[in-house]
Design a protein that fits this description.
Helix content is 37%, strand content 19%. The protein is built from 19 helices and 20 strands. The chain folds into three domains: 4-109, 3-Layer(aba) Sandwich (Rossmann fold); 115-335, Mur-like, catalytic domain (UDP-N-acetylmuramoyl-L-alanine:D-glutamate ligase); 344-485, Mur ligase, C-terminal domain (Protein-Tyrosine Phosphatase, Chain A). It is α/β, with parallel strands linked by helices. The chain is globular and about 70 Å long. The chain has helices spanning 26-38, 51-60, 75-80, 96-104, 111-117, 137-150, 165-169, 184-189, 208-211, 214-222, 239-247, 295-299, 306-321, 326-335, 363-370, 390-396, 410-420, 434-448, 470-485; strands at residues 18-22, 41-46, 64-66, 84-87, 107-109, 127-132, 155-159, 177-181, 197-200, 231-235, 255-259, 268-272, 275-278, 290-294, 344-349, 352-356, 376-380, 400-405, 426-428, 454-457. The strands form three sheets. Strands 7-8-6-9-10-11-12-13-14 form a nine-stranded mixed sheet, with helices on both faces. It has a six-stranded mixed sheet with strand order 15-16-20-17-18-19, with helices on both faces. It has a five-stranded parallel sheet with strand order 3-2-1-4-5, with helices on both faces. Helix 6 (137-150) crosses helix 14 and helix 16 (390-396) crosses helix 17. Helix 7 links the parallel strand 7 (155-159) and strand 8 (177-181).
Length: 490
């Protein structure tokens, strides 16, 4: 039997470890593949799994339980007697197998925990930059990665973003920095790591059904600051993020660095008129600031919004904590492009702009979108994940030209408008399938819009009730909009 306390290196002896990988998504498969490479005794348990991945597990000799065999606490798992379960982060803690593991004293990790122990595979020992928040994580992670690479620090984005962190760890050449996006699910399970710099971008209601309430969600997010070595980056405009830094147990010498849309004070990065400035990483920060970039530079990224400005300031603060020169940060900003479905202009005709922010899967993200425009026809709705959008409807009723309500949970959204914005015209889209939903939604929205208006897809809800994912929802919106206005890309 392996001693988990001794398994702290790629070069440790993992052969006697008995590990169950619970869930076979992207991170689960990466964990199983890594453990197989280490020679650990591994069993995969996944109710749902892609056939291609199971075929690969067969090739590399990893046994697996799927379908009905993987439900509850399988007898094969009890017989296997695991020392650790590496759980896919979306699985809820009250799951029967995890409850059994806790009662038996079996360790529960996520792939991030395993990656931390294996981070010395190459001689190039990477610093970790960890980023979380209700919204803006992926953009900030990608921006920071670009800034570090521009500054000569070989960096890779990973974690809750596209690339599994264990794939980054196993890169044969290694990296100087890993920029790790962390979800609240991952943070809930996460053990001890020591990030070089860390950030919580913002905090608002999200995934409350999974965590069981806001306080538990906040506590999970706050774990990102624990054991930070150099800089805890927080949102000056969101006091809850500052309180998380104050509550965190960090390495002596770690600094609290704020980012803001306003004028930065000492130890902050922010904006003076149209200039992004650093008053944190210079000797005379009491009296001076360093220019990093201008709003004109930021506009090269995409539609210039307060949300984008905040994400850029946060990324710049983390890059400066690593010593990246302001000129390199500016160059990275000017060359950066946002991923699709993040406040993306997808069509324009007769002075009307069609904006796809399908990635706005919760009210906080939709808030950032709605705040960015003056007159909006709002396409809203989907899976609400236990969150009430009433306050959002009330906040923006004065700028709403109309609301087009999609999704299968329409009643909650319709009630929110009836109660909080009774003067806003509302159209309920009754179609059930994704493509037809957007054809009807786009036609209805166009009927209300006039020159200078924005037709905004910012659903404030998840997409899986009517679409494959948020990208499918955004693509359907863009295609329907372009077809309506006769754009050849439609």
């Amino acid at each position: 039997m392996a001693d988990l306390d001794l398994l702290t290196s790629w070069h440790s002896d993992w052969k006697e470890l008995r590990a169950v990988v619970f869930g076979l998504g992207v991170s689960g498969f990466s964990a199983a593949d890594t453990l197989a490479e280490l020679g650990a005794k591994t069993l995969v348990v996944a109710e749902k799994a892609e056939t291609d991945l199971l075929d690969i597990l067969d090739v590399i000799g990893v046994p697996h339980l799927t379908g009905d065999e993987a439900t509850g606490v399988p007898a094969s798992v009890v017989e296997f007697d695991p020392q650790v379960i590496i759980v896919s982060p979306g699985i809820k803690p009250e799951n029967a197998l995890l409850t059994w593991a806790t009662e038996r004293g079996v360790a529960v990790w996520v792939d991030i925990d395993l990656a931390w122990r294996l981070r010395d595979k190459t001689e190039r020992l990477a610093h970790w930059f960890t980023v979380t928040g209700t919204n803006g994580k992926t953009t900030t992670v990608q921006l920071l990665t670009a800034m570090l690479n521009q500054g000569g620090i070989k960096a890779e984005a990973c974690g809750n973003i596209g690339k599994p962190i264990l794939d980054a760890i196993r890169d044969p050449e290694g990296f100087d920095a890993l920029v790790v996006e962390l979800s609240s699910f991952q943070l809930h399970y996460l053990g001890t790591i020591f990030p070089f710099s860390s950030a919580v971008l913002n905090l608002a209601d999200d995934h409350l059904d999974w965590h069981g309430g806001f306080e538990a969600y906040k506590a999970a997010k706050g774990k990102v600051y624990e054991n930070t070595v150099a800089a805890c980056v927080y949102n000056v405009m969101d006091k809850s993020t500052e309180s998380m830094v104050e509550d965190a147990d960090v390495v002596e010498g770690a600094r609290a660095i704020g980012f803001t849309l306003g004028i930065p004070t000492r130890s902050q990065v922010g904006f003076v008129e149209d200039i992004l400035c650093d008053r944190a990483f210079l000797d005379d920060r009491a009296n001076n600031a360093i220019e990093i970039a201008t709003l004109e530079d930021l506009a090269e990224i995409g539609v210039l919004t307060p949300h984008l400005m905040a994400n850029t300031a946060a990324a710049a603060a983390m890059a400066r904590s690593a010593g990246v020169d302001p000129a390199d940060i500016r160059a990275a900003i000017r060359n950066f492009k946002l991923d699709a479905h993040r406040i993306e202009l997808v069509a324009e005709a007769n002075g009307i702009r069609w904006i796809d922010d399908s990635k706005a899967t919760n009210p906080h993200a939709a808030d950032a979108s709605l705040a960015s425009f003056e007159r909006v026809v709002w396409v809203v709705g989907g899976l609400l994940k236990g969150v009430d959008i009433s306050s959002l409807v009330k906040k923006y009723q004065s700028k709403l030209v109309a609301a087009i309500v999609i999704g299968k949970e329409r009643s909650e959204v319709l009630n929110a408008f009836a109660t909080n914005a009774p003067n806003v015209p509302v159209v309920e889209v009754l179609a059930e399938s994704g493509e037809q939903v957007m054809i009807e939604a786009v036609a209805a929205a166009h009927g209300f819009a006039s020159a200078e208006d924005v037709i905004l897809l910012a659903p404030a809800a998840a997409s899986m009730d009517q679409f494959k994912d948020y990208a499918d929802r955004g693509n359907s919106f863009a295609h329907a909009a372009r077809a309506l206005i006769g754009d050849s890309r439609g």
